[in-house]
Design a protein that fits this description.
two-stranded parallel sheet; SDR family oxidoreductase; NAD(P)-bd_dom; 2 domains; UDP-galactose 4-epimerase, domain 1; NAD(P)-bd_dom_sf; Rossmann fold; globular; seven-stranded parallel β-sheet; alpha/beta
Amino acid sequence: MHALVTGGAGFIGSHIATELLERGHEVTVLDVLDPYYDLRIKERNLELCREAGGDRFRFVEGSVTDEKLVRDILSSHDVEVIYHQAAQAGVRTSVENPKKPHRINTTGLLTLLIAADEFGIRRFVNASSSSVYGEVEYLPYDEDHQTVPQSPYGVTKLAGEHYCRLWDEIYDVPTVTLRYFTVYGPRMRPNMAITNFTSRCLNGDPPVIYGDGQQTRDFTYINDVVDANLTLLESAECDGEIVNVGSTRTITIEELANHVIEETGANVDLEYAEPKEADARHTHADVSKACDLLDYKPSTGIREGVSKFVDWYRQNREWYEPLVRGTQQTRTSPSSTS
């Protein structure tokens, strides 16, 4: 099987790509290499793909908005499955520059869907976000909860979900949308809460919490997200569906920071700062639908996951930490939801 993974040099995309390659599939990664964070992290992700796949791996640098490039890839490589992970991430970034996420997250997705119809793609997996829920009516969120996004990023992701539904219904392109709940793990973006907390603690600095620390998040370990995605290689029961992918449990940001302190052995206290605009107060996934349709069973809780991440961070500190420390001022919110 040949898969196209858009955004495959990024955190989630590269994990999906390497797992596909390790299972013997062919993979083409399309990534624009946007310097939203240090590109050396993405370059290292691509190295891991090459190591896993050898001549079964191909990297194409370019944008999902490039119609000709997308068509060339699909026409020349017999792609059967598209894992669409490319996106302009960042809730607060979208508030500052709403045009950029619209172009990538909406126009780019539409470009791919049109090409998927033309070339008979047998499965299109779209990465969405818990940011589409926005205002809380009840928790945990099930897929029928109202969607009132509180940021331009969330709006673009919701628009993408509707496009996928229409392409499944009107054009018979088998689409599935997975709504991710705060994914974390090795090689995660350096401007995420767990990364920043870990870096600061290992350097004897206190974690900085924006707000009162009572915000709650459903953090999802990367291996569980990859498992959900790869299950869709075989399952046809999800065609046209939108499915939550979370961990089923929540933790406050304050508890998370204290757990990182405990895991790193740091002798520091917490610091607090003003809350950030557009960050959700709470997220919590109802994954009953994923369990029913995908036999999804999240296996890594937040405490075990943080322990694994801290161990990985220590082992990779020499190359990873300078990139984290260099980008911490880019986005230090404790509550990214993508």
